[in-house]
Amino acid sequence: MAPEQKIWFITGCSTGFGRALAQQVLAAGHRAVVTARDTAQVQDIVEGHDNALALALDVTDPEQVRTAVAAAEQYFGGIDVLVNNAGIGYFAAVEESTDEEIRRIFEINVFGLSDVIRAVLPGMRERRTGTIVNFSSIGGLRAFPAVGYYAATKFAVEGLTDALRQEVAPLGITTLLVEPGPFRTDWAGRSADETLPEREIADYADTAGAQRAAFRAETGKEPGDPAAAARAIITALAGDTHPQRLLLGAPAYSMAIEQLETMLAEARAHEALSKSADFDAPAA
Question: Which stretches make up the Ketoreductase domain (predicted)?
Fold first, then answer.
């Protein structure tokens, strides 16, 4: 194996970013563990590639997580790049949301991601090398009506990854948060059909309802290209160093800058009040 080749372990490869990334990783000459709940949905990706391995993986099944990671390590000898891409959306106002759907999205987007990380880290620590790529979202930096719980999972991924980065840096392991904006991944199409609220509350028609409709109306017309996003991720990781966060798409970049500037302006506007909470501080 050439030194520049990496062994990638990618979750959620049946559709969207996972599928595009698996295809681009293989096209770039790397080796890939291509995972999906149903491996029949990724056979077309691995066919004809002796540097690809398809494995069944439901990230909410801890035993299957451990089995898949062990199989990948045995087959390829290790994992250089873990990509936690598997995830779902949920399109409901906070009050419209159900316990079942709230717990389901956290099980997949947060706890499943965490389980895969903890299964892969022992091998990376032993080799003192590796990169963990966690898919967040522009929704991990700012929230929108109708996707509050989705945003909550992505905010959780952001915090978890920030802490993880500091813990593993001395061990030769790095992390990358990927923050896409709107892409043509059918996130608000088929995915939304599966996660619409059981009841819609009329009082939220102009907020959550309108945003939900806007998401659906843009399905298939989003500016983001998943293949280009995959190539950007591969490029970001190609050098000796890489960013801690990678915004993907012009809308994500613009929304992130706007959010950060708004937060900074508000913090400065209330600086005196914030500092007044310390012992012996002057009153605001």
Answer: 6-190
- Could you tell me if 197 and 263 lie in one domain? no
Q: Please say if 204 is a catalytic residue.
A: no
**97 has catalytic annotation:** no
Same-domain pairing of 202 and 179? yes
Question: Do residues 167 and 58 both lie within one domain?
Answer: yes
Q: Under DSSP, is residue 37 helix (H, G, I), strand (E, B) or coil?
A: coil
Specify the number of domains making up the chain. Answer: 2
Catalytically annotated residue among 14, 136, 137, 191: 136
Domain match, 178 and 145 both: yes
- Which residue among the candidates 90, 114, 154, 204 is catalytic per the annotation? 154
Domain encompassing residue 279: 251-284
pTM beyond 0.70, yes or no: yes
Are 95 and 114 contained in the same domain? yes
User: Which residues are within 8 A (CB) of 132 and not within 5 positions of it... i.e. 6 or more apart?
Assistant: 81, 82, 84, 117, 120, 124, 161, 164, 168, 173, 174, 175, 176
| Nearest-angstrom CA–CA distance, 109 and 18 | 14
Given the residues 90, 149, 150, 204, select the one marked as catalytic: 150
In tens, the pLDDT along 129-153 reads 999 999 999 999 999 999 999 999 9
